[in-house]
Amino acid sequence: EENQFIVDDVSKIIKEAIESTIGGNAYQHDKVNNWTGQVVENCLSMLTKEQKPYKYIVTSMIMQKNGAGLHTASSCYWNN
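That's the Putative dynein light chain tctex-type sequence above. Prediction below.
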């Protein structure tokens, strides 16, 4: 069906948003807040372009692999 939620398509969108924002960059504490926001906004932008009748909630977490701090960002899209 045209409006079916396809997990593989959404996963591809998420991966594209992460790659376009972070790419191959190593963890950089001073950029994490910006990266989390950009990943969320890129995901929402690409998901809404699909014009599916869904409400989206996107949460982004970026952590350094040494057990250190945690930074998060989230956003929602509700059509009117």
